[in-house]
Design goal:
Six copies of one chain form a homohexamer.
Chain A: E1 2-13, H1 22-29, E2 38-50, H2 62-77, E3 80-81, H3 82-85, H4 96-111, E4 116-126, E5 129-133
Parallel strand pairs in A: 1-3
Antiparallel strand pairs in A: 1-2, 2-4, 4-5
Helix pairs in contact in A: 2-4
């Protein structure tokens, strides 16, 4: 059984690798490498795997899941410039892929327990583009 | 090859385990334990797995799939108070998890045949919360 | 200039006029007259009309608008059985039309001030059905 | 007859009036006043009013409308930090209201002609918040 | 008070005026003039204006509105090639504009009565393009 | 890590197997067998599997993925009557299942390389019906 909760945050970012020069970043990321940054309404879907508890009928407490999402992802990232204000994006390019992995790393210790595993993080950058990350296998 | 069909029904429910007292139910389910009930526009996505038939090019007859969904899920659950009118929710808490499992149990015998297996039931309680159930493994 | 904010609440209701008998209610409202009730994820869109303030560039303070919506509509109606728990629906049929008018009555005194008028309340009962109410003209 | 075309762009902005101090901007705009900026996937809906041409059956040439939208709005604003790169937002607070008015000003001369009037600009900052601007009356 | 109901139908069409030659049609309509046709999932939103009836609390009987929509629009147009099978599109170009006007003409006599007026027909050709038609003024 | 990109095209089709007679096609496909054809706004989601590149932080170049989708799927299929203009649908029934498999066949050689595999093609015929194809296993 999988339980998925969706949340949204608005942030800005620059897609540029600080180890590369401007021309190279422009070649790789196009307009997304504009150093002033641009932004998105990111939508994150967090999927927890587990069995429904025989007493409560729930895989995970919904309010606790919402609190974890708020504390670990929404509060530190909402209304932020990721490259300047959210580690490790001062040195890691905040592509959708890297951002999904960072959300995974932040959520996993807060969610995983005897009966529940973090199964997937889906991150939409726009309605037409999203990534899924399920951890190292 | 997976084929998925979506349908919607409007129902009400109370999240409370009759074996527990009111205070305990309130602690577990919060406002959802209000004994008068509250409601949702549930969205169900039924996924059938099979090969496309070489003659028809279809995994499953679409009109039959719609009829099965209507007969097994929409008609008995739409415009109903689940705890009072739809078994087994007189004794099982109708969380999204338990409701998805019940939909699975109702659909599976009607859908599964030589070439087709019920693969997944996804049930949205709201746009921001859904579960996936794929049966016992 | 119009500013619109959207919010959602989950409630249940019965469409039946207490002044009519069961057969008549059944004839008028169909399955929606089921006395046990059924539910919806209602989506409400509140539209405020005004000029953008020359200093703030805003028609209305967004956080205050959210607080008003929460206090006047979401908190009293979310997770409720409208006919039993939310006045005046103990005596008024909670059709989408009547519910939109009640939301209008609750919001108007909290929103209207020198520079801002409540322009419209749109209420979705499902994705396929909604009403707009703009007050008595 | 109204014809509406939708487009999307991703930009970042800071909600702060340069004439006010930081504390005052923080009080008015909250987290949106973060000077590093944050971003959105803005969705713009442009509505043109006119009669369907008796020969073509169209209110406005759809491809030309798309080109105008791209040239006047999407290209100059997509992947930009509005306050730093798009006039007049170096001195005007880029609230959704002010941004909708600027889009109106840019589109109007390109769209209006004998048979067509710009009727409305709707701008979504998020799925839950949008403004409509129809010009000075 | 406005009541809006949404419905969907899948049809194909060619955008070409039979009074013009192929090159001219290609110039005006581009790829949409391909004589083999192409198709859309059209979404139609029908808006009825009236007061909520004091007894029923409804502007219009919802099931009757659905039946009218089905009978006048969905059944004759769904799964059809508009130019060949739905009058007057054998001689009128089925642009979104002309199709919305034809839907208006078909719905108006069935909907209008003492207390109810057809207020608007909105027709989406795609999610990014729609027209609104409210009749001759 | 999975990366998914969405695109849309408008096409028409007839669901009928040329090896069967009209009555048989009508029995199998219903209204979808209308020989004049009908249409859809198809939505395709292409999922690529790979590791995020340590330098670019990307699974696949987003602009190249968009170009591949345009070149292999959108350009040859958009505004087309599939049965008449897009091989192999002159002899293969263009059900959603068969269309998803054809899209898979067209995309795979263009996408697969050392570090990237085509993982899934999801094709929506309408908002309520879609198929997923992941290739022969």
């Amino acid at each position: 059984m999988l339980l998925t909760r969706k949340a949204e945050f608005s942030a800005s970012h620059v897609c540029a690798n600080p180890a590369l020069d401007d021309a190279e970043n422009r070649r790789i990321y196009g307009a997304a490498s504009n150093p002033n940054g641009h932004g998105h309404n990111y939508v994150v879907e967090v999927t927890v795997e587990g069995d429904a508890d025989p007493v409560t009928g729930m895989v995970f407490d919904l309010r606790e899941l919402k609190e974890i999402l708020n504390r670990e992802v929404i509060e530190p990232m909402d209304h932020r410039f990721l490259n300047r204000e959210v580690a490790p994006f001062d040195r890691v390019v905040p592509t959708t892929e890297n951002l999904a992995m960072e959300i995974w790393r932040r959520l996993r210790p807060a969610i995983e327990r005897d009966h529940a595993r973090l199964k997937n993080v889906r991150l939409y950058e726009t309605a037409d583009l999203f990534v899924d990350y399920g951890g190292e296998r």
